[in-house]
Write a structure and sequence with these properties.
The protein is α/β, with parallel strands linked by helices. The chain folds into two domains: 164 residues, Flavodoxin domain (Rossmann fold); 109 residues, Beta Barrel (Cyclophilin), CATH 2.40.100.20. α3 crosses α7.
């Protein structure tokens, strides 16, 4: 009898232990997400499968959720891949851009969880309509997709190629029956970084005389600002600019400004810093870093330039 009691007690303890282990679930650090970034789940779903995953992500991170609604709804016949259906025609047409019915405001969000189904091995063309219609500059895009078998990699590569200026993470594919644990793991692997303070101004000393520089709000300007203090011997060129090569390359987002203004601070190529001290028209492409206020004619000689953070 005593032995039976001992065995019953041991069995009861083991049941409690197993129950305790089974009740432990992976969790998302919502406080970290909220403190670091305002996030939103933005998704397109033709059949409801992607919507299901989008809702689970939104619930886990306690975020807003926005559906991308097509102006022309996709019916079952539009998704019959065995025939010449609408989805097939759109995916074959590189210029296809299905219209979006609803207005979408992403201005207040730093992080976008972007969801879509995989069609023909990549993203539906309506996602390209989205990128054409709204400004995702400076935001972190975390893609997720639903698919019976195709991975997300090709669609992510297409989005990156379509707009190389955007910050798009690698993302993840989910099946229709994805577990909560897999969704939590995906979120925890993509916890947004705390936004870095944007540097708006700096000081520049040219042959000992100081000037204020208003910086562009772009990655190039911020990376350059993080290199300060910096001293350069800048050479004269063309009677309108001073230039110097850096030891490292900076992010490039070049374009032709059409007209250079005296005081403009530009990056030429990947590592050449240029100060223009005269205004003129140009056919060259540059990445703008900022503008130097009240910059005089710097003359024909080389100059010693110190870049430093604003006091």
């Amino acid at each position: 009898m005593k032995r039976k009691i001992i065995l019953i007690v041991i069995a009861f303890v083991m049941i409690l232990a197993l129950t305790g282990c089974g009740s432990k679930k992976a969790s998302v650090n919502r406080d970290t997400i909220k403190a670091n970034n305002n996030s939103v789940v933005l998704y397109f779903s033709a059949t409801g499968t992607t919507k299901k995953i989008a809702k689970k992500i939104s619930e886990q991170i306690d975020s807003d959720i926005i559906e991308i609604v097509p102006k022309e709804k996709y019916e079952s016949k539009d998704l019959d891949y065995n025939n010449d259906c609408r989805a097939n025609r759109e995916q074959k047409d590189s210029k296809a851009r299905p219209e979006i019915k609803n207005k979408i405001d992403i201005s207040k969000y730093n992080t976008i969880y972007l969801g879509y189904p995989i069609w023909w091995g990549t993203n539906p063309k309506i996602i390209l309509t989205l990128l054409d219609s709204y400004d995702f500059t400076g935001k972190t895009i975390i893609p997720f997709c639903t698919s019976g078998g195709s991975d997300i990699a090709d669609s992510v590569n297409e989005l990156r190629s379509y707009n190389s200026k955007l910050n798009i993470r690698d993302g993840k594919r989910f099946s229709s029956d994805a577990s909560d644990e897999s969704i939590v793991k995906f979120i925890n692997n993509n916890i947004p970084e705390k936004p870095k303070k944007v540097v708006k101004t700096m000081r520049i000393l040219i042959n000992g005389k100081g000037y204020n520089v208003n910086l562009e709000n772009n990655e190039t300007a911020q990376v350059f600002a993080n290199m300060l203090p910096l001293k350069l011997n800048m050479k004269e060129l063309n009677g309108n600019e001073k230039y110097a090569d850096l030891d490292k390359s900076l992010p490039v987002n070049s374009s032709n400004p059409g007209k250079i203004k005296a005081g403009d601070l530009y990056l030429y190529g990947k590592n050449t810093i240029v100060i223009f001290y005269k205004s003129f028209d140009t056919t060259y492409s540059y990445t703008k870093i900022g503008h130097i206020g009240k910059l005089p004619d710097l003359g024909k000689d080389d100059v010693s330039v110190k870049f430093k953070k604003s006091e």
